[in-house]
Design a protein that fits this description.
The chain is mainly α. The protein has 6 helices and no strands. The chain has a domain of about 100 residues.
Length: about 170
């Protein structure tokens, strides 16, 4: 006798749908990609603008280091002090054009430098050595190393103003 066949055995095999592919992307992934690209662009522009705005500070710091190296070679403290004073004035005039930097001298100049750095640096004995440019003969007893460290710290502390649009930040 023939076994009665099961009617279910006569059905065709079950066809499974294809797996969902990764392409085309869903709208959520497109939004994530666009957001990441915009964030990368914004961060890049911010970093470039920040780098360019600090060009003057980098140049002044490099010039200050060259002045110190020249002092170590020549041991001329009066020349070092006058050149550092000129460097500070040029930096202040270019970075802070609306401040009264050029016309100041003596303690008023030192107070202005402290105001720009928002820290009391030049009211110390090392800072007051910068006033020795007014007394050329007394420049022999100046501790240039202390003054160099103070100026280095001042350049680190000074807060830069944002450049006005169209104003060049480098020399």
């Amino acid at each position: 006798m023939n076994k009665a066949s099961n009617p279910l055995d006569q059905l065709p095999p079950m066809v499974l749908p294809e797996a969902i592919g990764w392409w085309p992307l869903a709208i959520g992934w497109w939004l994530v990609i666009v957001f990441c690209l915009l964030a990368t662009l914004a961060i890049s522009l911010y970093c470039i603008r920040r780098y360019k705005s600090r060009a003057l500070k980098r140049a002044a710091t490099a010039e200050h280091l060259q002045l110190y190296k020249l002092y170590l070679q020549t041991n001329d403290s009066y020349h070092y002090i006058t050149q550092c004073n000129q460097l500070l004035r040029r930096f202040c005039l270019q970075q802070f054009p609306h401040e009264a930097c050029a016309s100041l001298s003596g303690d008023a100049w030192l107070q202005q430098l402290d105001k720009l750095a928002e820290k009391t640096l030049f009211q110390s004995a090392a800072g007051k050595q910068l006033l020795q440019i007014y007394k050329p003969n007394s420049s022999k007893d100046i501790d240039i190393t202390e003054l160099h460290l103070l100026l280095k710290q001042w350049f680190k502390q000074v807060k830069l103003k944002q450049p006005v649009r169209g104003q060049a930040t480098s020399q």
